[in-house]
Write a structure and sequence with these properties.
Strand content: 5-15%
Shape: globular
Helix content: 40-55%
Structural class: alpha+beta
Largest sheet: 4 strands, mixed
Number of domains: 1
Mean pLDDT: 94
Order of helices and strands: EEHHEEH
Length: 92
C-alpha cells in the first residue's frame, strides 16, 4: 500500500498496518465531531508517525499512485472538519 503524507512524500507500508491506521483515523473522526482539538492534534500526529515508523519512504523522483492521502500535520481544525467526517480517510 502506498500512502502519501501531504508535503512530506510517499511511504510504502504493509497492508497489515491498515487496521491500526483505521483505528486512529476513526478516533480522529470522533475527536473532530466532538470538537476536541487537542485529541485531534495528538491522533493526527500518531497517524503520521505510525506511517513513518512502519513505512519505507519512496524516492520522490519515482512517480507512484497513492492508495491513501493523509493531510499534513499542520492541518487546521477547521480543515479537519471537512476531511475527517463520516468514514474518515479509511473506509471500513
Amino acid at each position: 500500500m502506498i500512502i502519501r503524507i501531504m508535503g512530506e512524500g510517499q511511504y510504502r507500508i504493509d497492508s497489515c498496518f491498515l487496521d491500526q491506521l483505521n483505528v486512529i483515523d476513526n478516533r480522529i473522526v470522533e475527536h473532530v465531531s466532538k470538537g476536541d482539538q487537542k485529541a485531534y492534534r495528538d491522533d493526527l500526529m500518531s497517524l503520521i508517525s505510525t506511517i513513518k515508523e512502519n513505512g519505507k519512504p519512496i524516492n520522490p523522483e519515482d512517480i507512484v499512485s497513492s492508495n491513501l492521502i493523509v493531510p499534513p500535520q499542520d492541518l487546521t481544525f477547521d480543515e479537519a472538519q471537512k476531511i475527517f467526517s463520516g468514514h474518515g480517510l479509511i473506509e471500513d
